[in-house]
Specification:
Length: 198
């Protein structure tokens, strides 16, 4: 398994899922299953909730530990845009880490987001690999949509929020958790809540 999520954003995702206690988490894009495993671990530790993962690449089926997946995981292979959309209104937490092109972002911003329930947590990966995303990227498109609706977001990407990252890194050192699970430190994820009337 090649981890894609960095340690801090993986831990924040885990803690957010433990706090939110969602009934249905929807993961768009799993690649090798690293994020899938973190999400399933949180649901297992909650003792409730299920995960629906959709991806063109089914390699997560080979790497996610069966004891973590249990009966709480459903994997749908294929392009999320062509798969049944029965999950949209039932989703309690949306995790997006798939196609990072602007066109894909426009699809989910106009097709998925308007049907999500207000108040659910959403995370979008690979937004802040640098201080500003490429102008024609998924990240730029998502940030424009959020700004146009005056929706704030949280990130610990050092390129964008170095103070937040350093404060969390200091706490991790204080707790004896500084040894990395993986070597990535970009933590480019953003987190926000769906507003009413997207």
């Amino acid at each position: 398994m090649r981890p894609q999520l960095d340690d801090v954003e993986a831990e924040i995702t885990y803690l957010l899922l433990r706090h939110e206690r969602p009934d249905l988490v929807t993961e768009i894009g799993s690649r090798g299953g690293w994020s899938t495993t973190w999400i399933l671990r949180a649901l297992a530790d909650n003792g409730a909730g299920r995960l629906l993962t959709m991806d063109l690449d089914a390699s997560a089926l080979m790497t996610v530990p069966p004891e973590v997946a249990g009966r709480r995981w459903e994997f749908r292979k294929g392009d999320v845009r062509a798969l049944p959309a029965d999950w949209i209104t039932a989703t309690d937490y949306l995790f997006v880490d798939a196609d990072h092109r602007q066109r894909f972002a426009r699809w989910y911003l106009t097709t998925v987001f308007p049907s999500l329930r207000p108040g659910i947590a959403v995370s979008v990966h690979d937004v802040f690999r640098r201080a500003r995303p490429w102008p024609l990227s998924e990240g730029a498109e998502v940030l424009r949509a959020l700004a146009g609706r005056s929706i704030g977001y949280f990130t610990v990407a050092p390129a964008r929020a170095s103070l937040a990252y350093e404060r969390i890194a200091a706490l991790r050192r204080e707790l004896g958790l500084a040894e990395p699970v993986r070597t990535g430190v970009r933590n480019p994820m953003i987190y926000f809540r769906m507003p009413a009337g997207w």
